[in-house]
Request: fold
Amino acid sequence: MKLATIGVGNAGSKVIDRMVEFEQATGRDLCRHTLVINTARTDLAKPKHVPEDRRLLIGETHKKAKGHGVGGDAAVGAEVAQTEIDEIRRIFDDVEIHEVDAILVAAGLGGGTGSGAAPVVIEELQKMYDEPVYGLGMLPGKYEGGRPALNAARSLQSFVNKVDNFIAFDNDAWRSRGQTIEEGYEEMNRELATRIVTLLAAGEVDESEVGENAMDSSDIMRTLEVGGVSSIGYASTGVDTPDDGLLSRFSEAEVSEMESTDAAKIKGLVRRAVNSRLTVPCDVASADRALIIFAGPSSEISRKGVESARDWLEQETETVDVLAGDDPRPNSETLAAAVLLSNVTETPRIKEIQDQAVDAQNTIEQQEAVREEEIESLITDDNNDLDPIV
Reply:
């Protein structure tokens, strides 16, 4: 695929930056246009791979943001984006839309800018272009508190209803013990970038080597067109690079046994991708459609293994709508399998966030009511002998 990628807020911008870094390191060409949008000047300076002229600061003159962020307030994030929609639209005009197949908008749904401004950005993109707009949203962990959960629950409704497909990433499922918060987020961003680029960049390679069953953008877009929430699985293994003509040294029986082993490795890789950590935990059987990408040297991608893996995934997802294809990487030292589960409907973490958000909203309302009473008690004299000036 060819994408225009847009990161909104700190988390979204970091993921886009990691995607660009990963595609450059692996010789891919996915992100034809990149843009990051933020309300905090300091956060806008953090990306290392997004050009300076593709960074947009909004809210610099807003009475609350003033270039320092929105303090986790999603309503302010949305207000800033709506106020500066003309400036956002102007920078979109620089995107040569005929060069891209789709637009990907990434945001952390727990923060104020990502959860508030991103839906405004998506809505404007839908008005301007006919190309699909996909969302990539990072869900806050329980440990982040009630306010981020409230932001995420409210923003999630806008994301899923506005985008053509929403790819979710659950911070809770990816948090590792013994790491600082910053280290944890860095690892999560790398893992997410690896999965997204491996999946969506399939087919964008040197045409000197084309897979027997090459995946292209239409296959990916067809899998995503059902909408809803999607999850991605991923697994990789190292590969050996034998000398040319190595197989000719073995008998037919030995070659057949090696091919059987290769097929089992391919199927095992897909099973591991699905059964290990998905970007958002879900019931695999609830997926509407699925797609498998095998990325690595063509010699490592067993035809028999591909068919066996697809049959297995059809049984797991209980759907016959499963595509599988190659993404040849001649010089790769790894063989990877990326599995897209599209429109999954059984995702417990999203329900947990909604419940946590309701509790947080009730707590906030109670705190605000108590606070108002305390302030009124503080400034009002007991005997009502004093009158306010105005």
Observations:
- The two ends are 64 Å apart (CA to CA).
- The first strand starts at residue 3 and ends at 8.
- Confidence is low (pLDDT under 50) at residues 243-259.
